[in-house]
Amino acid sequence: LPYLDHPSQPRASRADPLLAPEPYDAGHNIPGKRLYSLRQTQQLADEFTIELIQLARHAFPNLPPTDRDDLVLDGFISGLRDCAVSSHFTLNPPTNLTNALQLCRWYDSHPIHGFLSVN
Fold it and tell me: Where is this region: Disordered (predicted)?
């Protein structure tokens, strides 16, 4: 058997951008870095999603689509401007991007205008 310095540590793989060395290192992969730091501005959730998908395809072209979709979902949740939706997703993580978008559309059509103050 070969000697392993750290058998409990996972081996880096190009299929896993979080474990992989360059070129998936966020410092060297500008689209990948943007994917993790992008924040929703005034755009609709659908437009934000399209931007994230384009970044993910450019940053990780060799990643299997299901893995890339997971990265897009993570970037989507962390980049949402609506704190109520973000909090909801933290407590009740969506199973996929479609479910996340459906809930965002519902929140967009039912805005919450703050809390009533009772004196």
Answer: 1-26
Contacts of 101 (CB under 8 A, 6+ apart): 45, 46, 49
The CATH architecture to which 30-104 belongs is: Orthogonal Bundle (1.10)
pTM for this one? 0.66
C-beta of residue 72 within 8 angstroms of C-beta of residue 56: yes
Distance CA 27, CA 49 (A): 23
HEC letters along 42-104: CCCHHHHHHHHHHHHHHHCCCCCHHHHHHHHHHHHHHHCCCHHHHHHHHHCCCCCHHHHHHHH
Q: What is the C-alpha to C-alpha distance for residues 16 and 60, in angstroms, rounded to an integer?
A: 10
